[in-house]
Every structure is written in structure tokens, then in C-alpha cells.
Specification:
2-hydroxymuconate-semialdehyde hydrolase activity; AB_hydrolase_1; 10 helices; 2-hydroxymuconate semialdehyde hydrolase; six-stranded parallel sheet; alpha/beta; Rossmann fold; AB_hydrolase_sf
Length: about 240
Amino acid sequence: MTPLVLVHGFMGGSAQWDGCRDTLQQHADVIAVDLPGFGVNAHLPPIDSIGGYADWVVRHLRGLGVDEYHLLGHSMGGMIAQEIAVREGERIDRLVLCATGAVGVLPGRFETIEHSKKRAAESGPAATARRIAATWFLDCEAAPGYQHCAGIAAQAKLAAINAGLEAMQSWSGEQNLSRIRRETLVLWGDRDRTYPWSQIQMLWEAIPNTSLGVVPGCAHALHAEKPDLFLRLISDFLDR
């Protein structure tokens, strides 16, 4: 089967896909990466650019002998996936962009990147992880998947948090959307606090061969909050 490469987002890790692996494995050989500075690779020096993360993922896949694959990116991982799709277009079969956008720093962001860095330095990585992970769920800390995701986020050190924020701050992929030619599925939770509809609409309309899936009553962590519907949409897309 064609491998499915999963790229997590800011303060994520490969373990966030644990509840999805068995089902996805029925449709593709799953390869879940841990970006430098995050998850089990929290000990590695972090990267401070989206393009740099994309290059790292490509090198990692070459090291595994993977030349052709499906690609799924969540949140910041969706930005990385867009960069990979531009670089590796002919090697990617199908592309999934989940809860992401084409602009690293959104207009009207709840706080500036510099303020986010300041808050992280003051409160520390562990508290930052719990605060940020709560925003990924409609029911915040009360959500069933919150503790698991917060634990993964807490593996990131302050240097990785700052590097990820800098990577998003300096990135925009809007000018490259028309260059993404692979069949693409854009997924979004209609209560996402991180990426508004305007960002999703941009991906859906600007990438030439794109389908859209909107998950109702769901925030940012679709795979953890509505896993059954998330998996049904992914499985249908891969099996077409």
C-alpha cells in the first residue's frame, strides 16, 4: 500500500495519532513523524522555518526509502505539508490539509507572536502546553482527548515553542496554492478557534483539485475530538 505520512502541528507529536492508527493502517502504511523539538524528538534542535521543517520531513522520508506517498498535515503541519507539496508534487499521491491555513500569522490573532513568546517564558513550557492544548477542543480541559494531547504538548521545551512560533510568523504559502496539483482534501471543524473559515475557504478555492469536509461541533483537534467522522472522511478520500 502507498504510505500515508502524518505531520503533526505546533506542540504536537506522532502519539497524537494513536487513536487513529489502526483504522488508517487498513488503507495505507502509516508513517507518523515527530518534528525536531517535539514529541519523541524533543531532544533534537528545533527548526525556526516552515520550509526548514519541510526539508527535514523530505530527508526523513528519503532515509526510510519512501519515494511516493499520501501526505496529511494538521495545523502547523498543514503549512509544512503545503511546502512539501510544492517541492515534491510528483511524489505525492493525495494530500490532506487539516485545520490549517495558507498564512502563518492570522489577521486578528488573539495575541501577537511576541506576546505568546513572553507568556511562554513567564509561565514555562508545561503550563503553556496545557493552556494551548485546551484551545484545541470545544470543551477545553473537560474534553476526553485533552489530557493525552496536553501530555504530548508538554514534551516541547521553550526553545521549540519559540522556534515554532517564529516559523509560523515568517511564513505565507498563499502565493503557492495554485502550484499544488495533487488531489487535495481540506478538513475543518466548524468551531475551530485557531483557523477561521476565511483561511479554509482560501485553501478550498485556490488549490485546483480540492474537496472540502466540514466537521460540525468540532474545534481544532478533529482527529481527537471527532475521530470516527475524521477517519471516515480520510478513509473515503484514500479509497476513491
